């Protein structure tokens, strides 16, 4: 297969490593800074949970979408806030036979598309404010995917795989088509675990359940997952946020196959891992607040569910994000 991965961060690189090892033609598309770093390395490296380093060479690393050509599969592995800009360039990579895989944290922009509700809208405002994603991305080509592995991007460009191999996938309408089966096979032959799920939205909530609560607490406290889940006060906040999130999800027809207690225990078992949001804070990057938190608040408004704890934590981390953006802008001005 010809596979383009847009976003050579921790998760994109981890996937590309598996796809390359399975013999597929893999292209990485990213911003010039990351592209330059990869080219300087000449190869990409993934460090396994056991500490073993594995190097691989993708077919192409570029910032030029036109250079990649039409792909069989395109993996959208960028941050959610970068997707509108990406969407306008996707036509260079896609044809009617191309499958798009979304693996963003939190809820995807397409969540309400094709979902039977009386909300009167198919758009979560903060995730596609100008309608660019809806305009440029054909939802019939999308297969949702939940990325469960934990990984970190090291400063030297290598990716450290902390734990996890699961990438369940599902069509937006719940059908299991030939392309869904082929996608499961692609993940499996590349060393991951996957299965076709008829209700991908419920699986998205299961992952977001923890991310909506644990990620912002980690950003504010600078603590790892195990520390947050072990400390009684932060654990209580997480549990309350999860209760509120569950009410919103269930009002939209989703269901949960785990209890809150089991979900928190699963997060704790990951160990001393820094969440993606904490990694962003430490690197001075903008935070994925819209997909992880604001989208939940906006959906709560639509279904008339109160989420006071989610709103309070969002207010705190939104100020943190504002300061990160301001500091990054000042740094750029000084360099200029």
Describe this structure in words.
There is one protein chain. The protein has 336 residues and is α/β, with parallel strands linked by helices. It is built from 13 helices and 11 strands. It has helices at residues 10-21, 32-41, 65-68, 83-87, 132-136, 178-189, 200-221, 225-230, 232-251, 260-269, 276-283, 289-302, 308-335; strands at 2-6, 25-29, 44-47, 53-56, 60-62, 73-76, 99-102, 142-145, 150-153, 159-163, 169-171. It has a 7-stranded mixed beta sheet. It has a 4-stranded mixed beta sheet with strand order 4-3-10-9, covered by helices on one side. Helix 7 crosses helix 11 (276-283), helix 7 crosses helix 12 and helix 12 (289-302) packs antiparallel against helix 13 (308-335). The longest helix has 28 residues, at 308-335.
**Mean of pLDDT:** 94
Gyration radius over CA: 19 Å
The major pleated sheet works out as: 7 strands, mixed
Supply the helix-strand structural class: alpha/beta
Count of runs of 4 or more consecutive helical residues: 13
Give the spatial strand order of the biggest sheet.
5-2-1-6-7-8-11
- What is the element string, with H for helices and E for strands? EHEHEEEHEHEHEEEEHHHHHHHH
Residue fraction in strands = 5-15%
Poorly predicted parts: none
Straight-line N-to-C gap: 42 Å
> Which outline best applies?
globular
Summarize the structure.
The chain is an alpha/beta fold. It has 13 helices and eleven strands.
Spell out the key features of this protein.
13% strand, alpha/beta, 13 helices, 336 residues
